[in-house]
Amino acid sequence: MEVTPEGNESSRDAKTLISFYSNYLSNRFTSLFPSFPSNFLEKISNLYRQTLLPISTKRRAGLPLPLPSNSVNLTRTASEASRIYEVLNDIMDRFILNLHKIQENLQFWQSIAEGSNARKVYFMIFERGPRAFVNGSVQLMREAVIDGSAMQNLSHSSSVYISERIAVLSSLRCSLAAFLAQFYVEVDKCGKELAEDPEKSFSSLMHTLNGLFSKLDASIGHLHALRQNDSSIEGTYSFPLLFETLPEISQEESQWTNSEIKEAINLVCTNLQALDSYLALMVAKHQKPSNVTRYWIRYTCGAVGLSVCSFWLLRHSRLMGSSDIDIWIREAKESTVSFFNDHVEQPLLAIRDELLDTFKKRQKGVMDMEEVKLTSDSLHRMLLAFSEQTKGEAFPENASDQEMLEIVMLRYEKELVHPIQNLLHGELARALLIQVQKLKLDIEMAMLELDQILRANEINFAILAALPAFFLSLGLIVAVRAWFRQDTKAEGRGRIARIQRRLLIVEIEKTIMQYQAYFDQGLENDAQCMFGLLIYCLDRLYHAVRRHAKATGEWQCLKQDIIDLGRPGLQTSYKLSVTARMERVYDCLLPSLKRQ
């Protein structure tokens, strides 16, 4: 269930890493050249923070802060008020983005942990790169020779390897979620004051943030105790997370000055950059392997196969004096043209001619209606003459052929009593010739009907000839459509994306109930963690349904329901009723089978 929040995460990670290592290099440079003026490096550092690490001026499309709706208009009137809203939005955005990166890696390690022991061993040997493959194979063979318990030892080491990363990432997630929950609740409490007079309420909010950063520093500091002596994590945890605290500004003053507000905002931005730097390094040490690392065997086989194929093509190319490739290209071109003519052009032309010139340009059929009429009239005259001669009376011209044929058959039966005599002197030969004429008429009528059936299905035969090209085009269209829509993510338009959005609703319901359970048990820290994860899930849902709900005109109602789910003061029963209504009412969250 992946919903990637918007924002330039890669550039943010690069900037945080540059900031961390630039501080390290500056300290080393100062230790090597103690006589060099230190304020020079400080000026460069300040310049970097002002240019590369500004406050985000444009929010991504995520869950908004719990502020009154008229606060958006107030940000346009005062520059300091605008900066206050920007820094508050920046705090929420950065924590949600960091939570997403942690959650993405945590879900991977949890999926590996839930697998069988064989799956864990396979991951340890084959999905951690060539070096891990060699080391794991050597260890496996060595332990198999020594004590015969190689699989058990490798399974145990893989469990330790995975559980260590799950523990660190879970602790990071809980700490960030608790901070996000407390920050969201504080903004909700002073939302009205922030909308009316941001500068006046900013002082109390900043002192609250100061305490929240201190708690975050203390909670993340426990990660040092999680590391074991034989830890599989490369590197150390020696780099500390140190937040700068707010200066001692008199809280008795009703309102801070612009310089004090600017200084507090700069301190918050500095703390956010320090947190980003710390989390970037911590997540990098505990992150899941990249796709190249996990599937390095496939990529290696592909590279080898590509090399062999390239060498084979080189041998048959003009560079080696061979004309095989030119011949193959010419044959492929001729085959393509022939396929196009036989299965695309000619069938379409046949369909066009059949639709436009149905009865004008057809070839002459096997049997015409005039021939059948001549045979029918000849049979009628033969029957009429035979009947008049046999009965000795005149028959009307419109006499039924069936009645006269009965007379012929009765006379035929009598003549068969003495066949040889009647064949020479009787009417037996004449009756036989009349029956031959009747058989000829029946055959001609059958051929005429068959010809009509063939003519009527000429367009069907042309369509059948075009079916291979049609199915080939349909397959290409479906493949291109699936590639463009990317239904595997919750923002997509297909059935899988719709399932992902409904699973987000399920996750929100579970988080709400888990939060209420922790709250009833008096577990405040766990409840805050669950509420922070609820805000994170709501942000993912907000981002996933925004475009679809706007297209169907449901966005305003759905947006308000999502915001209500994040309200700290609303009852759990009301929130669960809201989630049930969302699954039942909104088109972008309905199951695929119920959409008509």
UniProtKB/TrEMBL annotation:
Keywords: Membrane, Mitochondrion, Transmembrane, Transmembrane helix. GO terms for cellular component: mitochondrial outer membrane. It comes from the Eukaryota. InterPro entries: NCA2-like. It is a multi-pass membrane protein. Pfam families: NCA2. It is found in: Mitochondrion membrane. The chain crosses the membrane at residues 461-484. PANTHER family: NUCLEAR CONTROL OF ATPASE PROTEIN 2 (PTHR28234). This is Protein DGS1, mitochondrial. It comes from Gossypium darwinii (Darwin's cotton).
